Amino acid sequence: MKxxxxxxxxxxxxxxxxxxxxxxxxxEAYKFADKLIAKxxxxxxxxxxxxxxxxxxxxxxxxxxQRDAEACVRNGEVGSFLSIRTTEEMHHLQKxxxxxxxxxxxLIFGYDIIHGCRIIFPExxxxxxxxxxxxxxxxxxxxxxxxxxxxxxxxxxxxCDISADARWGRVxxxxxxxxxxxxxxAAAIVRGYQGDDLASDKTIAACVKHFAAYGAPQAGRDYHxxxxxxxxxxxxxxxxxKAALEAGAVTVMSSFNDFMGVPASGNxxxxxxxxxxxxxxxxxxxxxxxxxxxxxxxxTAADGKDAAQQAMNAHLNMDMVYxxxxxxxxxxxxxxxxxxxxxxxxxxxxLAVKYxxxxxxxxxxxxxxxxxxxxxxxxxxxYARQVAAQSMVLLKNSGVLPLKExxxxxxxxxxxxxxxxxxxxxxxxxxxxxxxxxREGLEERFGRQNILYAKGSDFRAPIKGGITEALRAAxxxxxxxxxxxLSCKESGEATSxxxxxxxxxxxxxxxxxxxxxxxxxxxxxxxxxxxIRNEVDKSDALLVTWHGGTMEGAAVADLVSGDANPSGHLAxxxxxxxGQSPIHYSMKTTGRPRNGIEHNEKYxxxxxxxxxxxxxxxxxxxxxxxxxYSDLQVLTPEVEMDDTVKICVTVTNRGKYDGDDxxxxxxxxxxxxxxxxxxxxxxxxxxxxKAGEQRTITFELPTSSLAYCHTDHSFKxxxxxxxxxxxxxxxxxxxxxxxxx
Length: 741
Ligand code: BGC
Description:
The protein has 741 residues and is an alpha/beta fold. It is built from 21 helices and 26 strands. Helix 12 (304-314) packs across helix 13 (324-334). The longest helix is centred in the N-terminal third of the chain and has 18 residues, at 133-150. It binds beta-D-glucopyranose.
């Protein structure tokens, strides 16, 4: 007992002695929290560390023990709820909390607003393909405003997990495979949600998830073990989480997976040493759904009590759903396994966020507005349409797109008129009845009489007479638009796949339509990268529409008609086949790189019957016009350490259409202390050029952005030569170099 007390006391001491620096706002919030804590019982403090759902809430994980939510609130045994679906229920529970619980502490309500609340934007991987950071920030702002009007204070977003494995369904929730792009997007989303004033009734708290490395489960199977070196973690996985924290995110979610052998929720190195001491995080951490208790299934905790002890001492503030904190906290303190000062610290951090959200000033200020006035604002719908169009990626076009006026279109496929599926996974409060489907979008743009619709097939099963009906439509039309891919149920959490090709019945539909000789435009709806060799082969054009959200259909009509010009670029490589997974452009060379050697290849790093390269690389995307990149110049061929490298390139629109493109800068450290990626994205600029127009783009590259994790885990830039490439995808060929002295 004495020994345990000493350990607990020591842990408490560690957390105090190395506490991160607090801003003025945080100091004020902590002071306020401390005054409350002084008056709270241990059980009330534990209550602030407990989050539950209610019986009418949206269930997003295995069912927890059903509790009387109202009684828990009244007794001060819960501080937060997730996934409640009505403003009324939240309002009611808040009233019980402030009027009937002894301390009157307001509840904090969270929800998975992942890519929109009422207005649903494209799934995050799609939006990332816009490379439009401002638009992504603005979309998050719209989502925050709608959520706050609903009554939510907090969203479990952004998901900052880098992943290069298309078998993992949750790639749809992130920004793709690249840490640099991922970091820019993560920070933008946090800015969008939180704005400059967390206490405003138009902003909500962000939650950086899933900390950490959840995007690298073995074999792409969700919730599976993650095993990687600290070096790899710091170089590839940490940057988006870090950027989101630097943007001011006030909460973090622990991931389900283990990390270096210890489940994240009980991993003190992650939750305290890295997050608090190194990254200076001062907000609170919520576990993922039941993740505290799941340490038992992981085999690192004996029971719920042990699980709570490990999580509390790891510095995890809030237990999502299961109840281990409230069930065992008092006993743990009584036995000296967790110190009361640790509980105080965990509680202080939760209360401080509630304070900063303004909940103590007015617990009802969120969720009071008239919904109808805030939701579905026409200008916001218009914005969603534009974001959806900019997200879509044209991967092939033999010239059939854009369609000519008056074209008769056979519109076929399970996603052509699928108002629910186009909203994707985590649709928030999106309503299928508000979706503009592809069918509706095309009918509006081309006239109803010009659209011949036939579903043709279900996602994974043929429909009786479906192909015959589709062929009939195709024969009467000038062109076939074939809207195929994956349903919303095959995107997001718990949707791992071992086959990432378009399901067989839909391929059969494509094969049959090909027989008509009509030009075929494939519209690929998906939340992940896929093996699309067959679709590329058999189509005349292929546009990845993703699950494009509420306005998907209008955006598709804008693009196929040429009213808008495709400008999306892949944020995730499309593999040649599933066997290449995980695959990303920034892989390392190995000691036996292939490098285009054509003979005696046996002992090189390669596959026997497939290429090493993906079918479409990261950064790739076509336009109706042609962009030309020339005159790459390094204006500062030699720089001192801590200087900025200046690089410029000329971009010219040589085609007939105005358009947008994304200039991308890739770098390689030629000789480094550790093995480095072949290329790494270090800058990009989305730009617009009118047909025939030309301009110069300048990149400024601080030498600090070339830093990487060394063998001693220090993060620094080496002097030496760096190669660069600039162009419109990760295979860019314009090449130059510079030296850091
Ligand atoms: C997911 C989280 C989500 C949470 C709450 C979990 O199953 O992994 O991303 O925020 O549920 O819904």
